[in-house]
Design a protein that fits this description.
The structure is a homohexamer.
Chain A (H helix, E strand, L loop, with lengths): L6 E6 L2 H13 L13 E3 L6 E6 L1 H10 L4 E5 H7 L6 E5 L7 E8 L8 H10 L4 E5 L2 H10 L5 E4 L8 H4 L4 E6 L3 H5 L2 E12 L1 E6 H6 L1 H20 L2 E9 L3 H9 L11 E4 L9 E9 L3 H10 L3 E6 L3 E3 L4 H12 L2
Parallel strand pairs in A: 1-3, 1-4, 7-8, 7-9
Antiparallel strand pairs in A: 2-3, 4-11, 5-11, 6-9, 6-10, 12-14, 12-15, 13-14
Chain lengths: ~325, ~325, ~325, ~325, ~325, ~325
């Protein structure tokens, strides 16, 4: 059942998550070529053996679980809700740094006495009927309510917009995905301060059996992990070139090592700069710094006489064999 | 639970069905004023006590069933799937003449041997595993497969687009709503010739308990039925005025009665026309004809000397107390 | 200055009001033909001597006031704000039944103690600085604050969205146009219960001097008033045809006169209906009823034996010389 | 060749003309049901044997000419350009009252000495090379230039926007379709005062052989002509009801006959009105007037004591057998 | 008044300027995260203490002036018009290199005798009434007319599109923002050759008092200036790597110094290249050149034997402490 | 004729090809500034003497051929169809790597016996009439059919969508541009396996006479070729920096030379890295590798002890004088 000879990766078929997944892969150097908006299949020229499919976020988890696709990029929220307990869905990467949201419990603004889960437990006990919670995340919500000893409750599975359920009256509160919180405010709902069930972002999942039985699937897994890791590391760094006057490369290096932020990945590359007046003491320093420390690094370079600080983008930073690849190999062993 | 003092009507919140419902009510003289696209509630000025809500088609049935809304206009497909067995959902009108579609079983085009349900039964028996059917209509599909003795089968509930399920491989065939059939063809699927599970169009449903216990809800039910019936009858008719020369109104009427199509609702209204030359034998005839017979009616009027045939639109045709209102009253009695 | 030999009507150039004005004129039988979205001038084929211009609502009042255009359709809010005191702008019609909104004072939701103008006066007196009100309606707001003895205050004229002014902090409250109230709620503002400065809808204005000095302008004024009045009356009525059995037209009329709603504009038109069985006592009654009383009228017709009630639309209802035309003529006399 | 058993009507596939054709047919009571925007075929429920196809305006003429479709609605401009000389394309209706435009010669604004065709002839003779005219209407432009003795000239067939050809320099002037003239002005071109080659609007064409050999095609031709003619007549008229006091129907009719505009199609229908005070001299008059004379008609009715003037729309006005149908039958005879 | 504890930056709320401001900040590494199109506030993750607000361009100046926001990015045109004379608005950067336009006087094309301000003065003197100028820039236009001795004049403040004012007749000429000039040409207006009142582009402004009293505001000012300056310099440069054969780094440097364009920011970085054949005379040169001189630089490198010229982007170029930061500090001193 | 003093480049005016051409030029550093969507002319700031025009793809070839424009970027398909035989159109670059498509013959899916050109010849011979082929590429299709000895045939030139021609019946098969093939599948057409007439992508063409007679045109040609070549080479490469420990630069180089993929353009640049512990054996290696070999290159670097592999983008790679420039110069000589 579900036999296919190609290798398959499912992406979210539309919406913000779908576009973000395409943008993410392109930024990783794995651009998706979708010849036609109406086709459900596409290609990644850099991974010619791969077929790209487009499905709803939740269907992706189901397809990876039942083996009809080998890899999926989707929200960790639906992975947590739908991956099942039998280990067929392996999470290769749980933080692709897009699609951030959180699943949380929200109550009508006018519930003046309910701000925490403890308040909710009190409120619930005072009701003479089960608390009704509208949600599309039955399993996660149920676990969370259980952990907070909210009982009894009824979960109401709604097709469309959850946020109107309390106003219309077919639920008391909701458990829904929130990004900016504006939709909740528009509907006069308020998240509970400790009501966050899950923090989610996009992740990469795979079918365990496919990884174990098909070497070409394992090869694609490695390529996906190498490029996503190298890209995610690269977006946090910048290359910095500066000219510095000093007695020698070693002397300049000592000054650099004395600074807080500078130091690069391992040590600065230092090359001579030939200047018009023949002064032999000019050197070019090349380091890589974290993007968020750039301003500080520039200040430190200036402090030790650096000038002409040129900053350049980096596309990938490959470290040793990526940790997540090792983790995957171990997980495959375990399940053996 | 679910107590509300207003009277509530839920409409489909978006898509073709949503717009068609708004257009239909406007054509009935019950225009919906939605002050703001982001609000979930609206008003019908002609029914000032009514609150209009917007929900997904399936959620409408659930809300009417649990009593959080009193009336709903939605597809009869989701009504059949979700109304439940306990009679809380009363179908007031099952043919509002928009939202036509059918739920049907469709198989991959390349299944050369499967064109009928009988073929499918053969195909299924030859499989060494259950037939997998992707659908959002679990109950209706299950009943239908049962009636055709297709067994064993697994129903797969898909979040997004069903049509790709056979191509991706997580289902063998699908049971989905079809209007033009183009989407099936695009996905190389073919409906079975006798695989139509349900013909559907939009209908009007109500909560039985609300009708029985709240007289103001019953009054609104009557108004809704009167206007929708009078409108649906009107769109099928046209008013026709013609000038005819004849000895007397009675003589003209006899000629009219002798024709196939003419005759109007009860009999022609005949009034004198005063012409310039004083000829006293000109009369104006006013009848109402079915739109589809108009051309024939004009031919018959010409045949008996009619000229200057002027056709005018009609907005409503009210008959005696509408049959569907009587049916509702009887259904309420039964459930007493 | 501002001499032009054509006759000019300015309409709102865009937005909801602009579209509504075009729809309104089309419904009046005065469809505007705009050959090209980029042209600022258009024509009304039914009024061939008229040039239609498109301007912002407020600019329309200014142009009518300075005589560069002769007629304008725009919101009564900007008319009130900008028409000036010297009577050059004559209001021909102040209720064209579209573009409804109200200008009102709104305060931040968290001002718990301020719900009325009286509360605001108290609040203002407790401030050690002038109350700051953001608005585009300086004159109307100033008059209103004066009438409610709110003092001192500063009016802040904002280019863009007023609603954010209190949140950003450059105003304490706002005076703005409100239709559904959703924008206020989104920005956590609340209108004062008696803070409505003006109820507004679209109106028709004209330049007094043009009406007095150019007979062709006066002719167009009459045409505009006749068609708008006849249209506005028509949308509130429907034609009703019913067949009734009775001894004589007079007998039927007596039954009709005895009913509450029936009666038509002056009296029913009653014509004989010739039926198949020769019964001479069938008559067709034709009356005109108010749309909002239709349901009641149908019930009354049924009560006196009416059947086959056919309702048809009406396009115009012309009464005697329209009251607003007389009012205009008188206003022109006064100003002589 | 081109055999097909259905009856086919081609409509313009997109743009203003395409939408206008759909609107026109709907207004005629022949609404087109296009189940899916991507399908090239559709149906008209009122003409169940007809297949509706969508093609570019010029391709429609070619398809009707070669018999692959039976009927086409398209611009008379492309009909004139492409219908050929052998009479296979029969024009059933040449004025459907939409898609108005004209084909005309336009020169650069800075050609100060060229305003008429005569000026152009002078200009052309002074050139030492052929005049270059960019156009998509080779045949019509060639005929027109020939009739005005402009010679020598070269016609340049452009794929895209003609208007830029003179500015880019690959043509001296253009012959193009003009509706509002704004595009010409934007490109600093000016039409010659007598340079209009053709006034065009949408028309209905048919394949002569299909009309002659297939009776069911002839039947559809009649239906199309009846409904389009009855609709086009109806949009120019309105029904008018007024109450008038008079000695008798005849007396009232005499007053009406004495008026300029009144008189209706043949004579007024006059029915008694029963009024509350029993006055027997009230009558209801029903006439049909031309829309453009409505205002005058109302004035005349008021002049003879009419009141309560109610105006109602008409959908069709069927006269005797339509003239264009007779013309078609004659043309078919001729070609026999 | 206007107290706020966060630090605030206002950006243009929509249109071309709004999008360009977001793009500019993103290119500077200061990406704005706007969680929801309907929210008026956003964040810049790289400047976590900053609140980003969205206002109309002119309102931004007013808010910075009154201190309700600390920083603004908006057009220098509205800054010049609205900043006032009291020095509360400090211009930190007046040339962010987007939003280019100019404010200029434009007259109807048919004013054949008016091409310069001197011509306009003559034209104006010949009028027997004040010249009427429609504009939204009352102050700048007034100053400019004064400087050119145009008197008397009336300024007309228009809500909407200025360009139609001369055609409608309520102004003689306009003073408006022009980017491509197409809108003027469309409306048959022509700018005066010396009628440019102001050349404008986007700038960065700040509230003087906030800078002086709140050190954290000063810190943000420095960060904004550093990153915008380093980005603006970077977009004009490219990094160039080339391999050159030479006796020694010094010899190569001499060749480079002899070229016109080459030379980099201070001097080339020269590193050895190890080639397969062991030739020790290959060196890699790394320089930074202005983008507009790239082609010339490549030619010069080729001329001295350079090959394999690889060009790479730069993200920032940080020089010594930016001049505009020093200018700001001095301006703050002055105002002390 | 066609004299112009500026230098002109025509780009496709709209659609996918138009946008791709703008994107391509921007990526080459030759960004097009189009001030206004309605203008037909634009500028490239980096090539200030150039005027950019926008035309339909086929019109571009015609304009370059007749000399009204000097350069064109358009599809090689229309170049092949329309360039003519007299050598006036010179192809400067035939593979700009966007706008890929192929022109191919496609037949109805139900033609079971026709899969190759040979099958088509058989099919055609069995017809008793010419094969009818709908196409917009008359010349290329005619040549291709001739080469395959398909005869007799008729070419049908269609204005709009070719794909419906076989279904409607006015052609038997089509020759059309295909990118993904989805449109063919939607219309139930199938390409012949050896029916590809032409593989096409965008190219750069020029007018031979302009290149020969105007030196400034030749200069622009060189600039265009240099930048497009340097860009096209750059997109296929990446800069790679890695730290490696080794005895000496030479020792490291030997290791690198021993690897498959590594080696860079000529040889690695090797600079010392100063590390904290004073170990003198660390070096930084800078090479350029093909993008498609990146993963392999990283593996090889790791294999020889490389760490901290940083990958950076390159904007241009300029080689010696580009081959296509030399080819152009030779072609100009030939034509002398």
């Amino acid at each position: 059942m579900n036999q296919h000879s190609d290798i398959r990766l499912s992406l979210p078929s539309k919406g913000r998550l779908g576009q973000a997944a395409l943008d993410f892969l392109a930024a990783c150097g794995l651009e998706v070529e979708k010849p036609n908006p109406r086709q459900y299949a596409a290609r990644i020229p850099a991974l010619p053996r791969l077929t790209v499919l487009f499905q709803r976020p939740g269907d992706i988890v189901v397809s990876v679980r039942d083996g009809s696709v080998d890899f999926g990029i989707t929200g960790m929220d639906v992975v947590a809700e739908r991956q099942g307990d039998n280990g067929t869905v392996l999470v290769l990467h749980n933080a692709l740094n897009f699609g951030h949201c959180r699943l949380c419990l929200a109550v009508p603004e006018e519930w003046d006495t309910v701000h925490t889960m403890a308040d909710l437990a009190v409120y619930s006990r005072a009701l003479d009927r089960p608390l009704r919670v509208a949600t599309k995340f039955l399993r996660l919500t149920s676990d969370f309510l259980g952990r907070h000893a909210i009982t009894p409750y009824t979960l109401i599975n709604v097709e469309g917009t959850l946020e109107v359920a309390p106003a219309i009256g077919y639920a008391d509160l909701i458990a829904d995905l929130v990004s900016s919180g504006q939709t909740l405010r528009d509907n006069r709902l308020r998240p509970l301060t400790d009501g966050t069930i899950l923090h989610s972002q996009a992740g990469l999942i795979a079918n365990r059996a496919a990884l174990k039985s098909r070497p070409e699937v394992l090869t694609v897994a490695r390529t996906l992990l190498e490029f996503t890791e190298a890209h995610l590391r690269a977006v946090e760094h910048l290359g910095v070139f500066a000219n510095i006057r000093g007695e020698s490369p070693q002397a300049i290096a000592q000054q650099i090592f004395a600074q807080d932020t500078l130091g690069g990945l391992q040590g600065p590359t230092i090359s001579p700069v030939i200047v018009r007046d023949g002064n032999p003491n000019w050197y070019a320093v090349h380091i890589v710094v974290r993007r968020e420390r750039l301003f500080q690094a520039v200040a430190e370079l200036r402090a030790i006489g650096g000038s002409g600080v040129v900053v350049a983008p980096v596309t990938y930073i490959f470290e040793e064999e990526p940790a997540r690849y090792r983790a995957m190999m171990e997980a495959l062993e375990e399940g053996a």
